[in-house]
From TrEMBL:
This is Sugar O-acetyltransferase. Pfam families: Hexapep, Mac. It comes from Streptomyces sp. SID14436. SUPFAM superfamilies: Trimeric LpxA-like enzymes. Signal peptide: none annotated. Belongs to the transferase hexapeptide repeat family. Residues 14-68 form the Maltose/galactoside acetyltransferase domain. Keywords: Acyltransferase, Repeat, Transferase. SMART domains: Mac (SM01266). GO terms for cellular component: cytosol. GO terms for molecular function: acetyltransferase activity; O-acyltransferase activity.
Length: 193
């Protein structure tokens, strides 16, 4: 018999998810919000192919906040979109995967290379809770004027400080201070800027 992990918790799975607690993604409202994101991302990609400027309102509808002169090249893959904030004048290259179960905040004047992954979801390490489909998420914060090279992966709960550079292909597993170059897997600062 499956364990009822939430026997004494009256909240919906959506409410648990939004609070950053463990939840199971079987809430109909979660599914509705995910489908909305898939639909808007597909419409944005199709519209961008015809007229990038005319496509911007679709991107603004998809994302929580989009700064002035920020540019996002499709395709863009998100869980919800509404939990993503992108600052002014930030450039996001092709094929960003931004799993925004928790907030993803990207500062102003950033450069996000192609094939970057910003991953807020987490899963239990213990086998049974993972088998029971429990999950959670932790926010990602990227400061102003950060450059994420192509193929960078940023894991849940990470903050990257202003003016830092993350080398292509790096996996960022913990916070990176402001004003450094960090490279590798796991990414480690190798130079101060």
């Amino acid at each position: 018999m499956p364990t009822d992990h939430f026997a004494h918790d009256p909240r919906t799975n959506l409410e648990r998810m939004q609070a950053g607690d463990l939840y199971i993604a079987d809430d109909p409202e979660i599914a509705r919000r995910q489908q909305r994101a898939v639909r808007l991302a597909a419409r944005y990609q199709a519209a961008f192919a015809e007229d990038a400027g005319a496509a911007r309102p679709l991107l603004e509808e998809l994302l929580g906040s989009l700064g002035e002169q920020a540019e996002v090249r499709p395709p863009l893959y998100v869980d919800y979109g509404s939990n993503i904030t992108i600052g002014a004048r930030t450039f996001v290259n092709y094929n960003l995967t931004a799993l925004d179960v928790a907030a993803i905040t990207v500062g102003a004047d950033c450069q996000i290379g192609p094939n970057v992954q910003l991953l807020t979801p987490t899963h239990p390490l213990e086998p049974q809770p993972r088998r029971d489909k429990l999950e959670a998420a932790r926010p990602i914060t990227i400061g102003d004027n950060v450059w994420l090279g192509g193929g960078v992966i940023v894991l849940p709960g990470v903050t990257i400080g202003d003016d830092s550079v993350i080398g292509a292909g790096s996996v960022v597993t913990r916070d990176v201070p402001a004003g450094v170059v960090a490279v590798g897997s796991p990414a480690r600062p190798v130079r101060t800027l």
